Amino acid sequence: MTKLINFALFQAGWFLAVILQTPWALLWAALFIALHIRFYSQVYRWQPLLIISALGLVIDVVWQWSSLIHFDGPGLYMPYWLMALWLIFPLTLQHSLSWLTGKPLLQAFFGVVGGGGSYWAGTRLGAATTDTLGISLVALLWGLWLPLFYWLLARLQQRSESATPPTRAQAPER
After folding, report:
1. Which residues cross the membrane (predicted)?
2. Rounded-to-integer distance, Cα 137 and Cα 20, Å
3. Where do the domains of the chain lie?
């Protein structure tokens, strides 16, 4: 799957999830993941991505419980659409956002601008509510989270690669 397709599919999923705010966003996430499984031609380690998804879900639940931000929509502890986003976001780290790998300062900057900007856009589209201080804090925290996600991804992949043999032959990315 090319980086441009990965980017376009994630952005489409983001807009569908944030604008529609329905449990159907989970269906889009499943389709996005299925496309990744089908077209990603290299050995794929899912454990690191699942851990990052879980960590992201916990982060947003804590933010909601602490009243830093309120997410709108049906769901158990958080809206289903937000769960869908956390299922697909880690798939961008090794594809459309792979240019950030090994660049912690750029990761931090992109975390503030991209991560904070996504939450700000979500509030403007009516998917979440917070105040200016809240969105500023979310942006600053994303400046810490994104480098942490890349660090965690690298460490977990190293452990995973040394512990288990690949299940598919490696091939260059298309």
Report:
1. 12-34, 46-65, 77-93, 105-121, 133-153
2. 26
3. 3-163
DSSP 22: S
Tens digits of residue pLDDT in 18-36: 999 988 899 989 998 888 8
CB 108 within 8 A of CB 68: no
- Enter the tokens of residue 5: 């397709």
d(Cα 15, Cα 98) in Å, to the nearest integer?
21
Give residue-wise pLDDT tens across range 32-57: 888 888 877 555 567 888 899 999 99
The predicted model scores a pTM of: 0.85
Cα-based angle 63, 68, 72 (whole degrees, multiple of 5): 75
Query: What does the alpha-carbon distance between residue 62 and residue 68 come to, in Å, rounded to a whole number?
Result: 9
| DSSP letters for 87-144 | HHTHHHHTTTTGGGTT-HHHHHHHIIIIIHHHHHHHHHTTSEE--HHHHHHHHHHHHH
Distance CA(14)–CA(118), nearest Å, equals: 9
